[in-house]
Amino acid sequence: MIKVRVASRARAAEGIAQLDLVCAEGRDLPAFEAGAHIDLFLGNGLTRQYSLCSDPAERSFYRIAVLRELTSRGGSAYVHEALTEGATLEISPPRNLFALDETAEEHLLFAGGVGVTPILAMAKRLSALGRAFTFHYCARDRSRAAFLNELSTAPFTSAVRLSFDAEPDTRLDLDVALARPKPGRRLYVCGPGGFMTHVIDGALARGWSGDQIRKEHFAAAPLSAGQDQPFELVIASSGQIVTVAADQTAAQALEAAGVFVPVSCEQGVCGTCLTRVIDGQPDHRDAFQTDEERAANDQFTPCCSRARSPRLVLDL
């Protein structure tokens, strides 16, 4: 873990707080790649992931931007209420599950709302490399769009395309944005689930292949638990059987039985709890794995996924 201090805090947009974090010991922070995120270990016992939006070439501070969720489970509320200037906390080193393919000929970047954070770091990196890219940034209206001042003066401002629901003349035109899906192009998208589905489905319908598209979710789609059934987990190393109740997650059942599995986001987004499945069929409810990985049925996320078969044998 790295102990950091909130060096500055600003309002990035309506409901979005921008925090600059510096090493509490005065050293440079670890290097990171565009698209990376860090875990924040919050004082209320929660761990949350936030993408880095600062320039990857800058190591004196990390910048994050956090939207206060109306249905916050404690993470964003804590950031907004407790992480004032001067506050200290611990973070993880950066991890990257949303990496740039720097060998590609051209990049299309799509950001929706606060999903701009990793996309902004990508734009900064691509600009420094002198690579061709277009940056589509969509938001409900200008008051909810972070970093507009920075984007208006950035070296890559000519590559930025702003789209706002409140301004029909600026609406994103996928026929134009997704034209010419040649193999050397790559598409990156981050934002609310509906926005991401719109862009990804639009790309696939226009001839883009799945391996040209990279995405990062901020939250998994909400699921109804009304039809959930109990199932069993078998711990391969010991033979221990753990019953997961209908109103309980697999991660909660494992913890109650004394079986340790690291958990972070609790939504199937980050992949921290990904666990190998030796036998049985998972009911995948995560937003972390690809369709191909889910089809293999050899791992699942116990924080949110369940089982289609009566039991799962886990490599634990």
Automatic annotation (TrEMBL):
Residue ranges constituting the 2Fe-2S ferredoxin-type domain according to the UniProt record: 229-316
Keywords associated with the record: 2Fe-2S, Flavoprotein, FMN, Iron, Iron-sulfur, Metal-binding, Oxidoreductase
Residue span(s) of domain FAD-binding FR-type: 1-101
Highest taxon of source: Bacteria
Cofactors (names): FMN
EC nos: 1.14.13.82
Record field: transmembrane: none
Coiled coil: none
One of the record's GO molecular function terms: metal ion binding
EC class: oxidoreductase
UniProt xrefs under PANTHER family: CARNITINE MONOOXYGENASE REDUCTASE SUBUNIT, NADH OXIDOREDUCTASE HCR
UniProt name for this protein: Vanillate demethylase oxidoreductase subunit vanB
Organism of derivation: Caulobacter vibrioides (strain NA1000 / CB15N)
Taxon lineage: Bacteria, Pseudomonadati, Pseudomonadota, Alphaproteobacteria, Caulobacterales
